[in-house]
Amino acid sequence: MRKLVLAVTLAAALAVPSAASAISANMLVLPNPTVTAVATTFDGSLSSPLTFQIGCPSYIETYTWNFGDGTGATGKQVRHTYARPGTYAASLTVDSGAEWCLKSTDTETVTVLR
After folding, report:
1. pLDDT tens digits, one per residue of 78-91
2. Nearest CA to 110 among 27, 29, 25?
3. Among 56, 64, 77, 95, which is most exposed with the fewest C-beta within 10 angstroms?
4. Considering only CA atoms, which of 55, 53, 57 is closest in space to residue 15?
5. Which position has the higher pLDDT, 97 or 110?
6. Residue 50 and residue 61: Cα distance in Å, rounded?
7. What value does the mean pLDDT of the chain take?
8. Phi/psi zone of residue 69: left (φ > 0), alpha (ψ -120 to 50 degrees), beta?
């Protein structure tokens, strides 16, 4: 009986936690705050391509940006100029390109001054 309990405990300890099963989006916005008519750099190069999800590739195929003002872009590093002052929820979604694999999104608040 004791050997059976040990085997179950060991199998549970070797299981991959669900939090480790997805790639991880991580964005940097410079400068923030920014001003209108000045290009802001959005950098997704700190995103992690590592995944422990079985059957999923360990790379990032797409970087999709939403700037929170109705526009967006694709690419690891992009630049965007806001036309109006305000507060925007900018987001980055990273994806390995495999439809059965998880995606990850990071959102940052961007403050645009006059």
Report:
1. 999 999 999 999 99
2. 29
3. 77
4. 53
5. 110
6. 12
7. 83
8. alpha
- 26 to each of 12, 44, 91, 113, how far by Cα in Å? 30, 6, 9, 24
SS (H, E, C) the chain: CHHHHHHHHHHHHHCCCHHHCCCECCCEEECCCEECCCEEEEECCCCECCCCCCCCCCCCCEEEEECCCCCEEECCEEEEECCCCEEEEEEEEEECCCCCCCCEEEEEEEEEEC
Q: What is the pLDDT of residue 22?
A: 62
What is the token pair recorded at 91? 């987001």
CA–CA separation, 49 vs 10, rounded Å?
A: 28
Q: Would the pLDDT of 12 be above 60?
A: no
